[in-house]
């Protein structure tokens, strides 16, 4: 079939103008939208009554953290689930794990991961999609649950008091642009070495020098990670404690103690290329070379929510990933598909399915947070309590309310203990070799 190119004609424009001229509401809506904006004009505040922050299951997880001007939500959310556990065990509610410590090692490992991918694709032209994908963002703040597990398994964790935030961890744009400048420069060198048929030893020597420079750049920007420290604190009853001679790994073992292999990534991606009850991974997605692989088990939304509820009922919070910018009111902390009615405002049908949004680039995972509660009515969820990492000035002291319908449409990932999986899914998750998805697949998005 031949599709003819047609320009917009004057007659078409005249018809559109006439349609507006004869619409009695057009000028009123034009004034409202042009002065107040699309979101404020389309907001349906009746949604707020439905999103009252009261839940039948409500975990007490203390004060929220603040990632500030950085993209480390996935890291904050994961460490928050661990600090909830630590706080309960050691009567230590006002406490945070160091997000800067894991941030340092994540960026260091991402640099090495990038170099390895550059070498693996060095025989491809810079115009190839894979090379272009690599160079678009050599590294960034974002990540996924399995990537933080890979960092902790290799480097452990430390209290925030031992490695606090710096200017560059809290406001990461300068560090990211500088580090990406270096990584792209190094990519030029590595690709040229391969083109010149340099020996493996020469390439390894060049890469070692590059990693030493990355370590120096990160140390100046974030501070150098500690290898041994004393943990000194007062618990909630004001009792003094000091634990001497800890390493990041012994601290993790003693104060968190999770077997991270017990926690698995569950996704809901209802696209034709990802049948349910199968596992998936994403090419070129990771941070620690030879470390833990990103692995997702795709399930129906019914199973997805049931697993999250089981973990909340057991008293443990749930890491989850979503597209936070969709139908979300940041200041009030409401995520609800009914909050904005753009269809009615513009008399345009904007509706798409979850699968269509994934396939056509309208949605993907952009943010990670923590589920800390759910409101069950007659055994069915109606709304969810969400611990964010944007500080206490948004939502209800930093906590958001998410409607169950919003979860259906815009939540893509939860992390649960595999003990909550039914036997058939447990077997699939453990034994099935994952299908490898393209690097740009939406399930490879970094929160």
TrEMBL record:
GO cellular component: cytoplasm
Active site: 73, 367, 388
Domain of life of the source: Bacteria
Chief subcellular location: cytoplasm
Subcellular location per the Swiss-Prot or TrEMBL entry: Cytoplasm
Record-level Gene Ontology MF annotations: cysteine-type aminopeptidase activity
Residues annotated as transmembrane: none
Gene Ontology biological-process annotations: homocysteine catabolic process; proteolysis; response to toxic substance
Keywords, in A-Z order: Aminopeptidase, Hydrolase, Protease, Thiol protease
Family statement drawn from the similarity comment of this UniProt entry: Belongs to the peptidase C1 family.
Annotated PANTHER family: BLEOMYCIN HYDROLASE (PTHR10363)
Protein name in the entry: Aminopeptidase
Organism from which the protein derives: Levilactobacillus senmaizukei DSM 21775 = NBRC 103853
């Amino acid at each position: 079939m031949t599709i003819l190119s047609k320009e917009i004609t004057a007659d078409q424009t005249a018809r559109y103008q006439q349609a507006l001229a004869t619409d009695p509401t057009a000028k009123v809506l034009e004034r409202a939208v042009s002065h107040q904006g699309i979101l404020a004009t389309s907001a349906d505040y009746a949604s707020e009554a439905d999103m009252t922050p009261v839940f039948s299951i409500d975990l007490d997880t203390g004060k929220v953290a603040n990632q500030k001007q950085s993209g480390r939500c996935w890291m904050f959310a994961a460490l928050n689930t661990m600090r909830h556990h630590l706080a309960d065990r050691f009567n230590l509610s006002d406490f945070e794990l160091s997000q800067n410590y894991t941030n340092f090692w994540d960026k260091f490992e991402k640099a090495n991961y990038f170099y390895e991918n550059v070498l693996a694709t060095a025989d491809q032209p810079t115009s190839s999609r894979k090379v272009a994908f690599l160079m678009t963002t050599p590294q960034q703040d974002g990540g996924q649950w399995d990537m933080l597990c890979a960092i902790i398994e290799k480097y452990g964790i430390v209290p925030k008091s031992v490695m606090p935030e710096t200017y560059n961890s809290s406001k990461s744009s300068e560090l990211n642009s500088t580090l990406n400048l270096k990584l792209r420069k190094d990519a030029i060198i590595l690709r040229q070495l391969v083109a010149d048929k340099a020996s493996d030893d020469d390439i390894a020597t060049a890469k070692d020098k590059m990693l030493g420079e990355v370590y120096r750049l990160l140390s100046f920007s974030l501070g150098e990670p500690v290898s041994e420290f004393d943990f000194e604190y007062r618990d909630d009853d004001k009792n003094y404690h000091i634990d001497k001679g800890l390493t990041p790994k012994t601290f993790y073992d003693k104060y968190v103690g999770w077997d991270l292999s017990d926690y698995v990534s569950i996704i809901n991606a209802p696209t034709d290329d990802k049948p349910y009850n199968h596992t998936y991974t994403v090419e070129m997605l990771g941070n620690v070379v030879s470390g833990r692989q990103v692995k997702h088990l795709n399930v129906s939304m019914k199973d997805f929510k049931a697993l999250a509820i089981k973990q909340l009922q057991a008293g443990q919070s749930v890491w989850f990933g979503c597209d936070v910018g969709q139908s979300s009111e940041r200041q009030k902390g409401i995520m609800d598909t009914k909050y904005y009615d753009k269809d009615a405002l513009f008399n345009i049908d904007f509706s798409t399915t979850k699968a269509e949004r994934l396939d056509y680039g309208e949605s993907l995972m952009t943010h990670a947070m923590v589920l800390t509660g759910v409101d069950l009515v007659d055994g069915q969820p109606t709304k969810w309590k969400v611990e964010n990492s944007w500080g206490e000035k948004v939502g209800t002291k930093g906590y958001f309310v998410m409607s169950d319908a919003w979860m259906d449409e815009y939540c893509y990932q939860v992390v649960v203990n595999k003990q909550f999986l039914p036997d058939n899914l447990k077997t699939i998750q453990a034994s099935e070799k994952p299908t490898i998805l393209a690097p740009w697949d939406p399930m490879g998005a970094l929160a």
